[in-house]
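Please go through the sequence and fold tokens given here and tell me how the chain folds. Record follows.
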Amino acid sequence: MSIESFNFGSFRGLVDDLVGNDTATWEQYIGHRDKNDKEIYEGDIIKYVNSTGDVEYLVVKWSQEDASFVTGWVRVDYAVRKGEVVGNIHQNPELLEVS
């Protein structure tokens, strides 16, 4: 069977049935773990303390331009070593609200 002939739609339906809904959000594992050894996925929110001691919340996103995962201005490999996953954009959007 070639990849062109594989019906991904039926696979998606099967997984949705197993999950229990058709609104499941699929996130890509980025190949890194945070300072607590937790896997990091696209859409995760990382709590990061910068060099002045200020807390920042960084969102892991895919950058087509950079062809890599990014977290804003902080390099993703540095942010993940120094930061910790505290949620994601789907379940914890309040972490990104400006107070």
